[in-house]
TrEMBL record:
PANTHER family in UniProt: ACETYLTRANSFERASE (PTHR43877:SF1), AMINOALKYLPHOSPHONATE N-ACETYLTRANSFERASE-RELATED-RELATED (PTHR43877)
Domain N-acetyltransferase: 135-278
Keywords, sorted A to Z: Acyltransferase, Transferase
Gene3D superfamilies with a match to the protein in the record: 3.40.630.30, Vaccinia Virus protein VP39
InterPro entries in the cross-refs: Acyl_CoA_acyltransferase, Bact_Acetyltransf, GNAT_dom, SAM-dependent_MTases_sf
Name assigned to this protein: Transferase
Alphabetical list of Pfam families matching this protein: Acetyltransf_1
Source species, domain of life: Bacteria
GO MF annotation: an example: acyltransferase activity, transferring groups other than amino-acyl groups
Amino acid sequence: MPLSDQTSGHSCDRLSDATVRALVSVAGPLPERPRVLDLGRGPRRPLPEGAFDLVRAEGAACSTGLEQALTEWRGLLAPDGALVVAVCPGTEAQGVAAARTAGYHVAGMRRQPAGEGAERSGCAGFVLRPADPRWRTRPETPADVPAVHRLNAAAFGQPDEAELVEALRADPDAWLPGLSYVAEGPDGTVAAYALLTRCRVGDAPALALAPVAVAPGAQRRGAGRAVVRAVLDEARIRGERLVLVLGHPAYYPAFGFVPASRYGIRPGFEVPDEAMRALDLAGGGGLPSGVIHYPAAFGV
């Protein structure tokens, strides 16, 4: 796939083509022949709205500020388009927060390795997609607890996951305030839920994604994807590095999860290799390896 087409703007710190390809590979499908705009090269010119499947914008926000630039660039993207940006080392959390404020979710993140021909190594590259406007995502509040319980029971057709959430909520070593997320529909009802709790890989801290639940009437409409992306973005802002999930192997790759065995991570019980997944939130590697230790509420 060509990574440069129409160009505009001024050159600044750029990611290598290899890093951009790695980011785009986890962003989800693009058209077979995507229309690509590179904002980091060439003179400024009027640009058509909603015309580009992929916009490369590394460094193009130097003069305007990232949040303002992200808001402006969103109008250039075609439906389901993707935007690649880069931020300096140490500013990753601010970059994720700016993306969320401007109406995006982070589809993937990768740190620029040395020796790939980029202008600066160590920069963090993000690939962003516009957030689904049908769903409002936010951390749960105390008022949501009964609705979250009902949602989990209805989504799974039995009370086990609802009771798991209650047990995790009561465990101060597992529960992380602000990482229990809901997605609201247009009428304000809780349509989907995702929870991250503290687990460990060996002695190193990690996060377990479970449960993920969608109300029966909201399934296959993007509510689950929206709430998972939102809680993962929150974990990135907090500086977390690793998320683990035991789930359907066809569902979680869209969020960047890969088989945990690639990192030498394994659960302490037998599961199919393709079902145990890991996500490198910072995209920089160097993750811990070893056996996953879940909170006691999981019973494993």
